[in-house]
Specification:
The protein is mostly helical. Helices cover 65% and strands 1% of the residues. The protein has 10 helices and 2 strands, in the order αβαααααααααβ. A two-stranded antiparallel ribbon has the order 1-2. Helix 7 runs antiparallel to helix 8 and helix 9 runs antiparallel to helix 10. The longest helix is centred in the first third of the chain and has 29 residues. It is elongated, with a radius of gyration of 29 Å. The two termini are 51 Å apart.
Length: 292
């Protein structure tokens, strides 16, 4: 009597087989398993370059607070702040327009918007000065800290990918609100106007310019982040030694420790793919013609 051979299962629908409709051969099932498909790994250099953007924005926030302290202690006159901020912002805008190839009409619209914002800020400075006068100073400083942390958390650092937590409008509003809070603790409306203008230039406009520079020059993140962090550290050192040490420590964590940890954790990636995944249509291929 001839020995019957065991039928071999095939992954086809047009062939009648002595198997259930939901049957899958376990050996072939595991043979089709793929690990870390389309997974991109990054080098320490690439991660550190991306971290320079975070370092630069952190330095901007600390510099803004340091300049506020200088005006609060009457070590820095608001006229000097405006004399440096406005020309620097104008030069930066001209550079931005040069590298983005904007039309003259766009420059005109931007100029009108800038003048309108400055006029409103100057006209509302007396109101901003007394807006939170009834609120205690401790509450104002706590609100400022929360707003600056929110600004850093939802800021767009250029990662892309539709990250849900990133919200440029919320980041901008948090920065402006922090400027309004601190401006209310300065002695005059002129101080409030200078603080608000400096906050918008440093925390709102400068990141846009930074993005354009990064798109135009290779490795420009380092030349933006490191000198900026050094200048901020020197200014902060005149106010507090402990704060300067903490700022330098945070910068080292952002620029060295976090990229190193991320680089080391990449080896533990273990994404598996196989026949259990949902079928995805390939939209990149051109449709076939009847002749094909």
């Amino acid at each position: 009597m001839a020995r019957q051979t065991k039928p071999v299962w095939s992954k086809v629908l047009y062939k009648k087989q002595p198997f259930a409709d939901n049957y899958v051969d376990s050996r072939k099932f595991l043979e089709e398993m793929r690990k870390n498909e389309n997974t991109r790994t990054y080098t320490f250099h690439q991660i550190a370059m991306a971290a320079c953007v975070v370092s630069h924005q952190l330095s901007s926030v600390v510099l803004f607070v340091a300049v506020f302290c200088y005006m609060y202690f009457d070590w820095l006159h608001p006229t000097l702040v405006l004399s440096v901020t406005l020309p620097a912002a104008l030069v930066a805008y001209l550079l931005l327009g040069y590298y983005s190839n904007q039309e003259w009409s766009e420059h005109t619209n931007d100029l009108k918007s800038t003048v309108l914002v400055l006029a409103y800020s100057y006209g509302l400075s007396p109101v901003l000065k007394t807006l939170t006068q009834s609120v205690s100073t401790d509450t104002i400083y706590t609100m400022t800290l929360v707003m600056l942390l929110a600004h850093l958390t939802v800021h767009d650092y250029g990662a892309g990918g539709g990250i849900p937590i990133v919200s440029p409008p919320l980041s901008m509003n948090a920065a402006v609100f922090a400027g309004v809070c601190l401006a209310s603790r300065l002695p005059s409306p002129w101080h409030a106007f200078a603080t608000l203008t400096f906050a918008m230039a440093l925390l709102v406009f400068l990141p846009v310019l930074r993005t354009r520079i990064m798109e135009s020059f290779t490795n420009s993140e380092v030349w933006l982040a490191l000198p900026f962090a050094l200048i901020t550290s020197c200014i902060l050192a005149t106010l507090t030694t402990v704060g300067t040490a903490g700022f330098i420590l945070v910068q080292l964590v952002v620029l060295v420790l976090c990229p190193y940890i991320y680089c080391q954790m990449q080896r533990h990636k273990n994404n598996i793919h196989g026949p259990w995944d949902e079928a995805l249509p390939d939209t990149n291929t051109a449709p076939r013609t009847p002749e094909e």
